[in-house]
Amino acid sequence: MTANPPPTAGHVARRAAHAAPAPPHTGSRTTRVLGVVVLVGLALLLLLGLALSPADAVQGDVVRIMYLHVPSAITAYLAFGVTALGSGMYLWKRSQFWDLAAGASAEIGVVFTALTLLTGSLWGRPTWGVYWVWDARLTTTALLLVLFIGYLAVRNLPGERHVRAKRAAVAGLVAFVDVPLVHYSVEWWRSLHQPATLTRLDPTIEGLMLFTLMTGIVVFLALYAWLVIHRFRVEFLREQLESRGLDDALAERRAEAAVAARPAAVGVTGRPVGAGTMSGSGEGGRP
After folding, report:
1. Domain that holds residue 225
2. How many CB atoms lie within 10 A of CB 63?
3. Which of 116, 73, 86, 37 is nearest to 231 (CA)?
4. d(CA 132, CA 142)
5. Which of 27, 61, 177, 258 could covalently link to 6 via disulfide, CB atoms 3.0 to 4.6 Å apart?
6. DSSP class of residue 57?
7. What are the C-alpha distances in Å from 286 to residues 33, 152, 158, 267?
8. Cα dihedral value 242, 246, 251, 253, nearest 10
9. 4 within a domain of the structure (yes/no)
10. pLDDT per residue over 166-212, tens digit each?
């Protein structure tokens, strides 16, 4: 009988691919439904914000930027709050789920923070006469963006996965300290930025304008949920792929070691190549 050769790395990789094929996409029935809800909500927000909602008595039509600016800021707060929660839970539980959730939420938060700064600049030009001033609210928001870009950079530093996750968790908690500074900056320091509109006891907005703003907040939060689910699944699949690649590399090294350990000269019949037979002349079995 012939000995079965050890499996090669290619065989191991093919078996792994057939055993656990990667999904073709990161969507699901729930995310597809949520995506449709978000699209309908965005269409409704555009209709309300651009057509149905009245212009402001002081600012005129410029106030319509508020329907993007305020929801973006609130969504960024939520995203970074989830990052801080995930970072703290990872340091406590050492769970990959919380690490990936923190990273995915931070990426979405950076996008919404950038949108907040952009819409705020567009709103500030006709209101203050300039696109940017080193106001307390604007400065702390810009710092928030820089801090979480740094957090994402820490996540991509070389090193073992658990070491990178621990460093990122600490960075995420440190960066989140700036969120309350942003929120309370208009109360703690003199600021050109208007004070809180919705959280005060006597809101300065009402009627259809208030309804439009609340619609924008709900729609943006739903958009955040849709984005973070997909981003989380992409990161999870990437981690699985890296783990599978490591397993395949280890299997290949074991296969190479097994081949090197086998006798170098083994024939088909299992006897050393060139060994003589019982018949023939006495010199080495030659006839």
Report:
1. 33-190+208-252
2. 20
3. 86
4. 11
5. 258
6. T
7. 81, 74, 63, 18
8. 140
9. no
10. 999 999 999 999 999 999 988 888 777 777 766 655 567 788 999 99
